[in-house]
Amino acid sequence: MPLRSRHLSLAVLFALLVAALPVAQPVFAASFVVNSLADSDDGNCTTSTGGCTLREAINAANANAGADTITFSLSGTIAPNSQLPDLSGGGDTIDAGTAHNIVLSARIWRQQVRRPMACVSHRRTIRFVAW
What we know:
The protein is α/β, with parallel strands linked by helices. It is 26% helix and 17% strand. Strand 1 (31-34), helix 2 (54-63) and strand 2 (69-72) form a beta-alpha-beta unit. The longest helix has 18 residues, at 3-20. It is rod-shaped, with a radius of gyration of 23 Å.
């Protein structure tokens, strides 16, 4: 086999191998807006009125691979009926902002659990939320 033909065969083989490699999918961060003070979870964190509780937003952020942000469109007290889900996404932020007063009531925690939620990942931020 001539040298030129061998180089061409190797180039074609290399191109086929590169084309067969999986393409990495980009990871996108998401924003979730808590618009309900209720403590429920129907599995959907939606933008409809009352469609996203803190529990739903945390679960949605944990299910998403990016560094997500959870914000609030209302002020008030959230009284969870049980411990909130652990915040496990890397780089996630829960931010009530300076325009909203959010308080997590510890009433139920004193009876059942010792902590409101755990942050089990690195690089996460919780701002302007009192408990």
